[in-house]
Design a protein that fits this description.
With 291 residues, the protein is mainly alpha-helical. The protein is 53% helix and 9% strand. The protein folds into two domains: 50 residues; 159 residues, no CATH class. It has ten helices and five strands. Strands 1-3-2 form a three-stranded antiparallel sheet, with helices on one face. The protein is globular and about 60 Å long.
């Protein structure tokens, strides 16, 4: 982790100047950079350019697209989803005219088009392949939508540890909205991670479902927690984000920091977790070897 460095290349009011600094750093060094748009206390918007000490190899799997580009694509999908949900609520009103229902159908088609185009772009990335072997829902898999969100909202250079990725997704002790305080995470992503975990449970995935059951048993029988299911769903959501982060880091040749009790991502369609790992989860102990 000591080799991971991040520096501020400059803060700009002009977005074009920020983009120039961003591209010049990458071209001159061959290393990764990104632009973060922020609102400062006086209400104005600035663009902060960060440079990193490691190269980006996303292009090995997704040519001509950066992590920033993936995030914009993922955000477009989230926005289309939110708009569709909002319109759907309106359409259920008895007074909703036919034109509203027609618009909802158009938005639904646009959402489908985004996913279809996204799949063509990300289908060679290891995260997409991992999502395709994780069973979810009724006879399906996590699929394109999950892969797009995970790729779009996990920057392996900014989040150099799984803990940082989980924190951004709201899957840490700090991931709670407090009255009067600005969220340090994306509430939408926390909801999507929870949905992914529930879908995996519904699909009874051969690898992740037994892990969930073992963790649920621990919360219910060892910790005596009344809401054992909810705690286990949250744990599974955190594990899925951690596994996506690990796969993304490895795909770019970046170091993955393992801890005792580390659980590796699912690697094969019919893979099952080892019984020794499940027993450790049921008891709340750490395995002597990594699972």
């Amino acid at each position: 982790m000591s080799g991971h460095r991040k520096l501020v290349l400059g803060t700009f009011e002009d977005e074009a100047e920020a983009f120039k600094a961003y591209t010049e750093y990458m071209k001159s060094t061959g290393l990764y950079a990104r632009i973060v748009t922020q609102t400062v206390p006086n209400g104005s918007v600035v663009h902060v350019v960060y440079g990193y000490s490691e190269p980006c190899r996303l292009g090995d799997y997704i040519p001509n697209l950066t992590h920033t580009g993936l995030r914009l694509l993922a955000r477009a999908y989230l926005n289309a989803t939110a708009l569709r949900q909002s319109l759907a609520m309106m359409s259920r009103k008895p007074t909703a005219p036919d034109v509203v229902r027609s618009i909802i159908n158009d938005v639904a088609e646009d959402k489908g088009k985004i996913l279809a185009r996204a799949e063509a772009i990300i289908q060679n990335h290891p995260v997409f392949k991992w999502c395709s072997i994780v069973s979810a829902g009724r006879g399906g898999s996590l699929g394109t939508a999950a892969a797009l969100l995970l790729l779009g909202f996990i920057d392996p250079h900014e989040a150099n540890t799984a803990g940082k990725a989980r924190r951004y997704w709201g899957l840490s002790p700090e991931g709670k909205l407090r009255s009067g305080a600005k969220a340090s995470f994306n509430p939408w992503l926390k909801g999507r991670a929870w949905f992914m975990a529930q879908q995996v449970i519904m699909g009874k995935d051969s690898y992740y479902y037994p892990l969930y059951l073992a963790k649920k048993q621990y919360y219910a029988e060892v910790r005596k927690i009344p809401h054992a299911h909810s705690k286990a769903v949250f744990w599974l959501a955190s594990l899925l984000v951690s596994h996506a982060h690990e796969i993304i880091r490895r795909s770019e040749g970046l170091e993955v920091f393992l801890h005792r009790g580390h659980i590796y991502p699912k690697a094969e369609p019919s893979q099952e977790p080892p019984e020794r790992l499940l027993e450790c989860l049921r008891r709340g102990t750490l395995p002597k070897e990594r699972g």
